[in-house]
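tool_call: predict_structure(chain=1)
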Amino acid sequence: MKLEMNKGLKFMVGFLAGFTLLGSLAIAEEVKVGVDNKFVGLTADKPYIYVIHDGSSVKVQRVQDPNYELSGYFAKTIRPCPPHCLKPISPSPDVETYGEVEMFDFMEHQLRDGSGVLIDARTPSWYKKGTIPGSVNIPFTLFNKEPDSPEVAELLEKFGAKERGDVGFFTSLLEKWGIIDTKYKTEDWDFTGAKDLVLYCNGPDCGQSPRAIRGLLATHYPADKVKYYRGGMRMWEFWGLTTIIPSAAKEQ
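tool_result:
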């Protein structure tokens, strides 16, 4: 009995020591971030964030190399217009446009708790070259199918919308009188539990995510549940933010 107690005591001491070490490392990291003026954070009070991508945790932060410069496709700013014409600040007056700080907040909250979806609306060939961590690839072409098509219906259901089916006479009457809230309901769909969506593509001169958003709105998806990250991949890479190559692309 004494031997078993000693083993248990040693285990507990070892566990507490390990736990304390992890805590100390975390504190040390925070202290380092707080005092090291050379560390480039996401914002004044947010050094980095973590998101889940394909089941793995990914640290999103800025490149720490002070000599970092944008290179490759997104470094080139002049391309033929059309088709590479600058797009309006929002695809629709009722759709909010996000900057990077709003993206960080969305990724930390709605994306983390499952109430939001971050959508890379580019074609698969673009997506395979690199994407924002936490994104799912749903090409704009899918959103542009007929609003009543099976493909669009499947999408809406994935986003948390529910087909209403036949609405009874009594329910219809209550809705008509305003007794039942119909803010997020249409004749065909109930968007009450639908997720918040953030869509993006290659940047301000890319029309893929604006077209996807207009396709969404054609289904009567609530505009206040749709956000547009206008900066897209160009501005994400401009600021030296973490990108990721999708696992499917790595395997090819």
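agent: The domain at 41-159+194-251 is CATH 3.40.250.10 (Oxidized Rhodanese; domain 1). Proceeding to next step.
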